[in-house]
Amino acid sequence: MGSNGKLMAENKIEPTIRSGDAKTVSAAAEILSGKSKKGFLARLLPFMGPAVIASVAYMDPGNFATNIQGGAQFGYTLLWVILASNLMAMLIQTLSAKLGIATGKNLAEHCRERFPHWVVVGMWALMEIVAMATDLAEFLGAALGFNLLLGIPLWMAGILTAIATFLILGFERYGFRPLEAIITGMVSVIAVSYLIETIKDKPDWGSVAFHAFVPQFNGPESILLGAGILGATVMPHAIFLHSALTQDRIVVRQPEQLKRLFHFEIVDVLVAMGIASLINMSMLIMAATTFFNKGMTHVATIQDAHSTLAPLLGPAASWIFAVSLLASGLSSSSVGTMAGQVIMQGFLQRHIPVWIRRMITIVPSLAVIISGLDPTRTLVISQVVLSFGLPFAIIPLIIFTRDKQRMGILANRWITTLLISLVAGLIVFLNIYLIYQTFVGG
């Protein structure tokens, strides 16, 4: 046994190693053993990645649609929804990652073990609907990106999207590191794009700060968009996925090493979700500054935003916008397919090849494209569907992460359980209020 193998054996680290991952696992073993003399950033690097992949779901094309509509129609009013949603997401994703680390099983697998069969089948069916709504948003967004960049018909852009997604998912066979690197690169493209857009916009930072922290709504439509922002930010499939990403990435059993691993994962979540939060806020700020502040509240679609940016901010602005949308759609569509695999395998113990699942989930998206439905409105409604699925992911997460028998030393403290319960209650309340305003309140 080599030195790396001895180190892993001594510290009871049982990695699932695939090509390209051995170096990362070996470095993690040394760090978790307490023997590493590297600086904090160097020690952090092997543990970064799972939250970045999960965070892609928080800046997908559904976010573009809801944030552009929210900013164009209501200015900075809904900024606080983005901030609150991302704070909720940080807590939720931290618990999801912790579940995988502590138990070696993902959320769907725990549901299958704990709940009656009829409940498991029902949850699986609901999560598949959520996954389809997710994939619809992501696939449409990438297709729109190709359409805006290349000027090709939307149906042709859809075919390009399918091909590109297959290519990205193909890297998964080489291990978790190559795929993490690709997704991180795409997230970087989105972040840089919106940094440039925000600099060009020159927003009113005083008003931005006020609306980021002062809760307000402005009529039923703003509540619909608020729920859409929440659904686009705190996404059910990402909760299931994150627990799967950490369950066998770096496996430890000793209590002290479990704590160290979890602490590194917290940093991963804070960094990834912090970037996602800033990107989402930048989207809404761009729409509010460019459109709402100039009286252009009619700008309600991604296509409108793209075509209007050029005369207002220069040709580069619309090009940057399209590039960021394409990067968002391709990365999130790939991650959504991964999440669908986790959900089916976890709930039903059934596995189908990822390329078959990708082919199946393409059909609804192409149907929307061919039927001529408004892509942006379809994206917004799909995000509202996601918000209705959230309690069915968050409530089981609370049940399992507070269970000391399952979680051991990483079981939730009472204050954590209280906070996550308040989050779940708020989401349920918002959804009930949304239904009332949409169908009764008029």
What is this structure, in a nutshell?
The chain contains 21 helices and no strands. The protein is mostly helical.
Care to describe what's here?
The protein is mostly helical. It has a single domain (60-441), classed as Amino acid/polyamine transporter I (Up-down Bundle), CATH 1.20.1740. The protein has 21 helices and no strands. Mean pLDDT is 80; it is low at 1-20.
| CATH superfamily membership | Amino acid/polyamine transporter I
Shape: globular
The whole-angstrom Rg is: 21 Å
| Mean pLDDT over the full residue set | 80
CATH architecture: Up-down Bundle
Count of DSSP-assigned helices: 21
Helicity range of the residues? over 70%
Q: Structural class of the helices, strands and pairings?
A: mainly alpha
N-to-C terminal Cα separation, in Å? 70 Å
Q: Which keywords apply here?
A:
442 residues; mainly alpha; Amino acid/polyamine transporter I; 21 helices; globular; disordered N terminus
How would the blueprint of this fold be written?
Blueprint: H1 3-10, H2 22-32, H3 40-44, H4 50-55, H5 61-74, H6 79-103, H7 107-114, H8 117-150, H9 154-170, H10 176-201, H11 205-213, H12 220-233, H13 236-247, H14 255-290, H15 302-313, H16 315-348, H17 354-371, H18 375-389, H19 391-401, H20 404-407, H21 414-441
